[in-house]
DNA sequence: CGGTATCCCCTTGGATACTG
DNA sequence: CAGTATCCAAGGGGATACCG
């Protein structure tokens, strides 16, 4: 077994870019998953994400937009209308994200057991 | 496109268990990756993780131990000796974790570009 | 409808010094 | 060597009310 390198994480490490840090906040992952099925309106997102305050949802969406995962579109309809949808980058992120969710489901019981004791 | 379910995230969502939340703190992922190669001593971990204060490293390790990802072993050597190593659960987590790191490396330039603008 | 604004708490985590 | 103890700052994030 070889020794660990001293500079392994001197620069910004790729793992610091994991989804919930990429987005910048704890809700980013859920927001992304809510956008899997196509563009969604703000009020539509508030349904599955009812536990997020409007402030945090906006903040999360803005953050995801800044980082290039989500595209915000404003329509000039008579009634105001805004949609959010995944960019190519955002969609590419869904793959590893799903891998994680699958892993969590597969090991759900083990995780709970470990927590118990 | 079907409507989003209202109860999608009512219970604790699997995605909230993502690696950096599973561990509980921002360093957990890096710690896990440092343990890929086998058992490591505390002081050994401090080398690649030089930016983490001893307090945070301990806290992170304790958290990973509680959650069943890491096993702490104390030896009764004359000189004090403690090692940390991945459990089966911990090793299983490395897979999706690596998937993420790979993704981050693959999209590194895009990520930086998005950040710029 | 799609958000802002404000207030406030509380945890996260950094620095530093110390200990069995 | 393998941690603790203490202090402190920053900001993440919740609740609520309001706005164009």
From TrEMBL, chains A, B:
Keywords: DNA-binding, Transcription, Transcription regulation
Pfam families linked to this entry: HxlR
InterPro entries: HTH_HxlR, WH-like_DNA-bd_sf, WH_DNA-bd_sf
GO molecular function, one term: DNA binding
Gene3D superfamilies: Winged helix-like DNA-binding domain superfamily/Winged helix DNA-binding domain
Domain HTH hxlR-type per the UniProt entry, residue ranges: 13-112
Superkingdom, natural source: Bacteria
Coiled coil stretches, renumbered: none
Record-given protein name: HxlR family transcriptional regulator
UniProt organism field: Kribbella rubisoli
């Amino acid at each position: 077994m070889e020794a660990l390198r001293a500079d392994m994480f001197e620069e910004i490490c790729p793992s610091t870019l994991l989804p919930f840090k990429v987005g910048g906040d704890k809700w980013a992952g859920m927001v992304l998953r809510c956008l899997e099925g196509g563009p969604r309106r703000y009020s539509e997102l508030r349904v599955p994400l009812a536990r997020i305050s409007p402030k945090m949802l906006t903040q999360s969406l803005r953050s995801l937009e800044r980082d290039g995962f989500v595209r915000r579109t404003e329509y000039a309809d008579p009634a105001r209308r805004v949609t959010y949808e995944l960019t190519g980058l955002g969609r590419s992120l869904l793959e590893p994200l799903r891998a994680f969710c699958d892993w969590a489901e597969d090991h759900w019981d083990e995780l709970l057991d470990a927590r118990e004791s």
